[in-house]
């Protein structure tokens, strides 16, 4: 049976229990699916090292040699075994902490040592290495590149580790060699010099040599990027054919607000982007625009003015924010701004009760609400508008192509879409997440802003930092103290936050302190936030929930705890929370004393510049692939398994061109020969992460 139709449960080495695990953990259903699980690294087993050639911690090495002596240290559970291994000229220590009683060593016997060196007291050693007597070494073990597969904790518990995955794939080899149908046409393979799929799958799992492995990976990356671009560009083509609502009027609401309610003169950049937006709104084509502007550049006001244009033309508008805190804040700001007008603004978030919804939904359907502000609750199917004409998405790199596509269903014609972001986006990412958008840039901050001064301290300076905080508060300012929080480490991180909060309470018994984090009930979060916004509390202790968009102009100090754990863009976003008022603001990056070279560089860049674009570039260079996708991926139409947006930029350009050529000739993929692409897109769509997972 064709591999694509063979249930994984019928593959040799699988069985029902493993099949369940593979389905749950990796979404593997067919034999083909498991062939599409690619190795994340290879270890070169054709090379033998000498001990003095070891030069870094992370590369697996194999060494031929003997064990000279060994001894155990400690007793019972704490017992460990230490052995001295020699390659004839140098020695290295081997250590076992677990299963010491099972380690059987012999002198004067040649061994193959295989493992990852680690550094201890300025010397390398091997912890729990594989040690195989030379006469038991299977020649296959020391040949070529050995693939390693990512596995989850649950998989490991069920015995499906990297080796097991490899074994399952090995069993499929005879079938694979018979050939699988390619998902790319022969013309594309030829034009872009790509390996056919069968060969690529063979070489990615069992590479003949490094060159074949790289060719195989390149082909598979191309394929991924190609289908992403095909999907994005196909949507763009489809949209280019769709008509948009025509909004030619600059009317009563806009003019009244502009004349009487605008609290300040717009910057030139704000005026320019507003003209660009207005041009789109009256063009008759559906707008899809990305508004990029550094933190504090005044995007909210542009959003509001755009909404007023839509309202003037008889349409409703909505503004969607990534977090509840931010949605609440937009609601508060905008309601305040439009106070003197008869514009109806409402709020819809996850915390809106059934009861409130019972009032809100009909009002929305009746057109009595002009502007709806909220979280992604807005894109739920049950939220229906009378005549939605404009959708504004704030601060959201995670609202990618797929989510925007959903907005189309909110009216008979697709509404105009304005996506706003403060994150300067590297080109590859922009081409992928926003490859279907036009771009407007606010490249000017409102006048009178003093650049934030940034300092980097080790926690040994805690005392003087506290003094500084107290000086600022006594001068009437407010202070943020931010702690990192990552999912994998959530409980520990929350503990950190709680401890930090307690310490601050002890240090500053006379100040009032708020605390917010993602695990709190929305109502409590909101209340704590409001206390800070209104100036009732002087210090806000928080996780990164305040990273995006929060605006408290009186806050002048941003203290970032464990700053070494944040990426550059995140640090920049956090820093953007201060420097919003007339007072000099400060950002204090606190780290432990000993830092890696990379971390030190990150801190130095933060201290040296306030320029978001420079920081984004440095970020992309410093961070390896992975990190970037981790946060961005959910905005992609399909998940990336092998390609990387941070390192495969060139391939992405090529893949985009290849996709474009197909669509230029056949915009709706109707030709017989393009049906294979259509089918593949449908197939890929079924595997995408559920939208409701994206918050
Ligand atoms: P961001 O672009 O980061 O979303 P905001 O819209 O939150 O920025 O604006 C930041 C601050 O700047 C707000 O307090 C806002 O009222 C103020 N602001 C916006 N536009 C102007 C302007 N043209 N002149 C002075 N202040 C402005
Ligand atoms: Mg904003």
What does it look like?
The protein is built from 23 helices and 22 strands. The radius of gyration is 29 Å and the shape is globular. The strands form 4 sheets. It has a 7-stranded mixed beta sheet with strand order 6-7-4-3-2-5-8, with no helix packed on it. A 7-stranded parallel beta sheet has the order 12-13-11-14-15-10-16, sandwiched between helices. Strands 17-22-21-18-20-19 form a 6-stranded parallel beta sheet, with helices on both faces. The longest helix has 32 residues, at 210-241. With 695 residues, it is an alpha/beta fold. β21, α18 and β22 form a beta-alpha-beta unit. It binds adenosine-5'-diphosphate and magnesium ion (MG).
Labels describing this entry:
695 residues; seven-stranded parallel β-sheet; 23 helices; binds adenosine-5'-diphosphate
Overall morphology: globular
Radius of gyration: 29 Å
Parts with pLDDT < 50 across at least 5 consecutive residues = 624-634, 689-695
Please give the count of helices: 23
Find the count of extended strands (DSSP E, 2+ residues). Answer: 22
Mean pLDDT: 88
Overall SS class:
alpha/beta
What's the helical proportion of residues?
25-40%
N/C terminus separation: 40 Å
Widest beta sheet: strand line-up: 6-7-4-3-2-5-8
How much β-strand is present in the residues?
Answer: 15-25%
Characterize the largest beta sheet: strand count, sense, and whether it forms a barrel.
Answer: 7 strands, mixed
**Each distinct ligand:** adenosine-5'-diphosphate, magnesium ion
């Amino acid at each position: 049976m064709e591999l694509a139709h063979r249930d994984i449960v019928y593959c040799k080495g699988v069985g029902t229990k493993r099949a369940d695990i593979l389905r749950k953990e990796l979404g593997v259903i067919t034999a083909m699916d498991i062939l599409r699980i690619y190795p994340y690294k290879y270890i070169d087993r054709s090379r033998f090292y000498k001990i003095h050639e070891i030069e870094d911690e992370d590369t697996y090495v194999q060494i031929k040699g003997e064990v000279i002596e060994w001894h155990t240290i400690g007793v019972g559970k704490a017992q460990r075994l230490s052995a001295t291994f020699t390659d004839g000229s140098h020695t290295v220590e081997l250590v076992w902490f677990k299963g010491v009683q099972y380690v059987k060593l012999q002198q004067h016997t040649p061994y193959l040592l295989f493992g990852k060196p680690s550094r201890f007291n300025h010397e390398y050693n091997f912890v729990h290495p594989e040690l195989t007597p030379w006469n038991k070494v299977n020649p296959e073990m020391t040949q070529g590149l050995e693939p390693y597969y990512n596995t989850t904790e649950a998989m490991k518990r069920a015995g499906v580790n990297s080796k097991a995955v490899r074994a399952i794939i090995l069993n499929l080899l005879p079938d694979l060699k018979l050939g699988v149908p390619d998902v790319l046409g022969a013309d594309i393979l030829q034009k872009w010099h790509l390996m056919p799929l069968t060969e690529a799958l063979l070489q990615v799992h069992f590479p003949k040599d490094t060159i074949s492995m790289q060719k195989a990976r390149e082909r598979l990356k191309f394929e991924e990027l190609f289908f992403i671009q095909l999907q994005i560009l196909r949507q763009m083509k489809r949209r280019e054919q769709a008509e948009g609502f025509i909004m030619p009027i600059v009317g009563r609401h806009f003019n009244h607000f502009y004349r009487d309610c605008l609290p300040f003169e717009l910057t030139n950049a704000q005026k320019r982007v507003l003209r660009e937006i207005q041009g789109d709104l009256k063009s008759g084509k559906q707008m899809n625009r990305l508004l990029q502007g550094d933190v504090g550049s005044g995007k909210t006001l542009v959003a509001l003015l755009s909404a007023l244009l839509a309202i003037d033309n008889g349409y409703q508008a909505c503004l969607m924010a990534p977090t509840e805190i931010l949605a609440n804040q937009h609601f508060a700001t905008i309601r305040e701004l439009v106070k003197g007008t008869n514009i109806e603004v409402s709020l819809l978030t996850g915390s809106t009760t059934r009861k409130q919804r019972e009032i809100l939904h009909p009002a929305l359907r009746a057109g009595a609400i002009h502007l709806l502000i909220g979280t992604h609750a807005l894109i739920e199917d049950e939220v229906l508008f009378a005549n939605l004409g404009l959708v504004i998405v704030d601060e959201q790199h995670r609202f990618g192509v797929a989510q925007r596509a959903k907005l189309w269903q909110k009216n008979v014609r697709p509404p105009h879409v304005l996506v706003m972001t403060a994150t300067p986006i590297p080109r590859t990412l922009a081409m992928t997440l926003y490859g279907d958008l036009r771009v407007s840039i606010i490249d000017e901050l409102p006048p009178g802003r003093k650049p934030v001064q940034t300092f980097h301290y080790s926690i040994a300076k805690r005392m003087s930092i506290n003094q500084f905080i107290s000086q600022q508060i006594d001068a009437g300012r407010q202070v943020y103290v931010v702690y990192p929080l990552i999912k994998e480490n959530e409980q520990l991180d929350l503990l950190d936050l709680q401890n930090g909060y307690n310490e601050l309470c002890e240090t500053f018994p006379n100040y009032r302190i708020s605390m917010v984090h993602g695990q709190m009930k929305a109502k409590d979060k909101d209340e704590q936030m409001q206390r800070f916004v209104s100036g009732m509390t002087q210090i806000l202790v928080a996780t990164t929930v305040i990273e995006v968009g929060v605006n408290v102009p009186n806050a002048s100090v941003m203290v970032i705890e464990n700053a070494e754990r944040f990426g550059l863009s995140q640090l920049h976003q956090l820093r953007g929370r201060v420097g919003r008022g007339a007072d000099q603001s400060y950002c204090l990056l606190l780290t432990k004393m000993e830092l890696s070279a990379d971390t030190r560089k990150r801190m130095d860049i933060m201290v040296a510049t306030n320029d978001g674009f420079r920081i984004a570039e440095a970020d992309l260079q410093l961070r390896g692939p992975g990190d970037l996708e981790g946060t961005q991926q959910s905005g992609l139409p399909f998940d990336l398994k092998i390609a990387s947006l941070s390192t495969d930029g060139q391939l992405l350009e090529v893949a985009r061109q290849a996709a474009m050529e197909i669509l230029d000739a056949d915009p709706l993929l109707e030709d017989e020969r393009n049906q294979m692409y259509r089918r593949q897109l449908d197939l890929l769509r079924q595997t995408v992460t559920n939208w409701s997972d994206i918050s």
